[in-house]
Amino acid sequence: MQAVALRVADLKTRGGACLTYGTVLESSLAEQRIFVRPYMWRVGPYLASAQAKSTGEIDVAREIDELNVGRRSLGEVVHSAEHEAAHIAFAIPSGGAWNEALVDERVNQCSAGSSEQSAAKRQRR
After folding, report:
1. pLDDT at 27
2. Which of 26, 39, 57, 121 could form a disulfide with 8 if both were Cys (CB 3.0 to 4.6 A apart)?
């Protein structure tokens, strides 16, 4: 969880929207409401790798799937937690393509120049 704490510190220095969801992420971390599950899980008919609840609880999967497609890096797990914190902070429902794109845009704006996020993106390529 140290990686999440480091990311929170970075988000807080950026201010604006970054501070807004960084505060949610910090609160979830401080209240021990971030849970790392070993694998993806079902949410209705879908498999989820991360999920947030309005209470501030954030669940993230360490592994993408049981077929061992690939292990997620620490940066990717932190990015998922950050993405879910943005859902909570801005009250954007999960699931819809438009909503996910909106959250991704907010998180990506706060990731510009972040070495952790840049490394995670390089690993996915």
Report:
1. 96
2. 26
How many domains does the chain fold into?
A: 1
Distance, in Å, from the CA atom of 59 to the CA atom of 44, rounded to the nearest integer, reads: 16
CB 53 within 8 A of CB 119: no
Q: Answer yes or no: are the C-beta atoms of 6 and 116 closer than 8 Å.
A: yes
DSSP 31-49: TT-EEEESS-EEETTEEES
Domain range spanning residue 34?
A: 2-124
Q: Which of 32, 50, 40, 30 is nearest to 94 (CA)?
A: 50
CA dist 70 to 65, 76, 124, Å?
Answer: 8, 12, 10
- d(C-alpha 4, C-alpha 76), whole Å: 11
Residues composing the chain: 125
Judged against a pLDDT cut of 70, whether residue 115 lies above it is answered with: no
- pLDDT per residue over 19-53, tens digit each? 999 999 999 999 999 999 998 888 888 888 999 99
